[in-house]
Every structure is written in C-alpha cells, then in structure tokens.
Task: structure prediction
Amino acid sequence: MFAFAYRLSACCRASWIGFLVLPIVAGCGGGGSASGTGTATVLKSVVIHPDAPVTGVGLTRQLSATGTYSDGKTADVTGQATWSSTVPAIASIAGSSGLVTGVSLGTTIITVNVGSVSNSVPLKVISGVWTPAANAMVGHAYHTATLLRDGRILLVGGQTAAVEIYDPVADSWTSAASLTGPLSGHTATLLADGTVLVTGGFDPSTPVFYNQVEIYDPVTNNWTQGPQMQVPHAYHTATVLNNGKVLVVGGTGGNSFNAPTDVVEIYDPVGKSWSSAAVLPQSRTMHTATLLPSGKVLVAGGATSIDPVAVWASNAVIYDPASNQWSSTGALVMPRIRHSAMLLPSGQVLLAGGQDVTGHILTSVESYDPLTNAWSAMPNLGLGRELATGIAMPGGKILLVGGLSECAPSCPPGTLAIPTATSELLDPVTDTWTQTARLNQARSAHTGTLTAQGVVVVVGGYGPIAGNPFAVDLTASAELYW
Result:
C-alpha cells in the first residue's frame, strides 16, 4: 500500500493528488471574504478538484476545494470545508482536510460543504488502469530508467544526451546534468552508495561504440568519468552481484552492429576498477541477464552473429561469481532476441516475446527452472511483441507492456511492425495471460520502472505520429499503472 502526501504552506495549499500534482493556489491570504473596499463578499460557489477523482484500494489522495466569491475572486477553501463520502466502505474521507482513502472497488459521492454552499463529485476506486503522467522534457528511446534511493527515477540518454529526473510524488520532471553526447544502447546501474554507473552504448548519429564509463551522483547532480572498460559494449547487460560488484556481459563490441563480443568484465565500485571475467562460451548481444536467488547470473537468448548470417543463441548460460566459470543450460524452447526476462517468485525465470531468427515477432513464452536446469514452454502471449518492458509486480504477477507488434496484412509496404498500446498480465499461479487496460500511448523501446509504492512508471519510446499510425517518432509521454 502507498500513501500520497499533501502539504500546506503558510499561505497557499498545493494538493498532492497521488502522483498527479494539481497546485490550487488562489487568494493566498485567507478566505477572500473582503474585497478591499470595505464591502463584505459572499461565497457563491465551490468547486472540487479534480472533478472526477480516481484512486485505488489503500491509496490516499488529497482533494481540494476552490470557492468563488461575489466579487469574482477565488480562494482555496479546502481547510474551511466539511467533507463527506456517501459510501465510506468504498472510500473514506477526513472531514476537515479532504484527504480521501480508497477502501474497496466501487463508486461513492464526495460532498464538500462550506457554510450553506456545497458541491459533489463521483469518486471511483479502481485498479488495473493506465493514468497519464507529466511528459518528460524531451523524447527518449533505447534509454535507461533507474530507481534512485530517494524514490525518484533517473532517465539517461536514448537518442539524446539529455538526462532527466522524475519525481513520482510530485509528478514532475527536472533537468539533470547532461551526458557528454547522445547515447543509446547503454546500461545504467544503481550502486550501493546511491550513485549510478552508466556503461558503454553508442552515439546514434555516428555510430561510434563506447567503452566509456560515467558515474552520476544525484546528490551533487554531477557526472564523473569512471575507468574505461577493456572493450566497447552496446546492447549488453549489467547486473549487480551479491557482493556489490557489477557484471557486464557481451553486447556489440566493435564499430559495427554485426560484431557481438564474448568479453565479460566486472566493475568494483570500492576500488573503482575493472577486471576481466571468464569470457562467454559464445559471443552474444541483445540478450538478457537475470540474477538468480543463488547469486548466479542467467544470460539468455541473444544473437551470436548478425551479418552475413543471422544466428541466435540456442541456449542460455549461467555465470558463477564464486568460481568465475560459465555453464550451459538446456536448449531454449525458442531462440530469441529483444525479449523480456523476469524473475518469478518461485525462483524461475520467464522469457517472453522477442524476435526469432527469421525476423518474426514471437508470442512464445518459456520458463527456466534452476532446479532442473531446463526450459519449458508456457502459455503464449495474446499478442506477439518485442522491445516491450516486463515488470514483476507486487503479489507475483508479471506485467508486459507495449513493444513492437506485427501489423500484417494492414501495414504498408516496407513496414513490418508498429508500436502497440496493449499490455498483458501473467498470473504465475494459473499460468494464464490476460489483457489489461490499454496504454494511452502506443510505444516500443520504452522503459518501465516499479516504484517502492508498487506503481509502474512507463516513459518514452517510439510512438505513432498523430494522423499516421505507421510512422513513429520519439515520444516524451509517460504514464502510470497501479
């Protein structure tokens, strides 16, 4: 459960509405009951903000009230009002503050009274919805989103050098210190000291592939250059090990997208240095890496060769930090790249969607069991998707959001896939996928971040251009799911 906060200043009130902040600033000086000419004013009407509030079970949300007086002036009257809910079993409300808490799913009527003046609005307690959030300052795709220790989200690069920070409580974005140049295909990893390690990637305008390392300090809003990696890495993975070190695996290692690498490196945040780890049994890029409960790392899927012959890895491999050795799992049910990987509560690992070696987008899903070291097929997705985001939700369900989906036969020549606004939810107990509410913006190559309050924040990606669903551009839009 998560609670939303509200604040009162000495003069004005800002209503913190969940993640959505609607500052109601009016008549900073009291009730506005005098016009300044000595003539008393009378409250004529009162309006509740927002006019169609929505919240969730266990979520607390601040409502506010604005009064309009006979002289035409307005003032915040939230604290002067008496608030009530017709069905407290659905949502209760503090009588003197307008702070409402969802109790059960349904609809109630919220009423505000200021003297003899009143107004009412319906309030719905719902779940499984996508709510628009404040737009990022610029569009991002193939970027990273890192949850900071203070609950904010750091957005880095993605076809741009821009860096932004999202505050999910205030629903606001602020600029952070920029990168030295545009960056995509990198990783961003939260370290134990609260700084963020950004490794590799490439300049999308060149492309030049990087072995560079930059470290962001959210306290000082400064970037510092870290020690360079031994080789360039892009579309690689970076996994925090149980000892706090960071394992960087594979990716594209040369000055071409056609050059997967087998190089594996480990970053020591204490010594601020890199060391070599055992190389991959096969080069691979566009794979996934998942930290297992045992402390080992499962590296699954990816391409071992792209050009002149496309070859997808037919298996997964496991890295043991204790022995610095790789071992192989059984064969994948379906070789894939650009898929999603999620750790299930059972300790198994789920792979969903992606692209097969022929270029088709997959509906297939499979899971890895560390006890048997084997893969098994699971129920297919309702819609094939790659470049989606997969999020392990509180309670154990898996949310798969957006991505690219094939558009044949409706797509025009030269277009094979377009971003989708659909999302699906897996119940690992029943092994069933169900469609959830549609996103407000179709998107692919976006990010999805789960906050400590259990809210999913989806940002950016490529989305359709208005008026042409088959043409895409970077989007700055963001939305929330709970």
In short: Confidence is low (pLDDT under 50) at residues 1-36. The first strand starts at residue 7 and ends at 8. The chain has no helices and 47 strands. Residues 7-125 form a domain with the Immunoglobulin-like fold (CATH 2.60.40.1080).
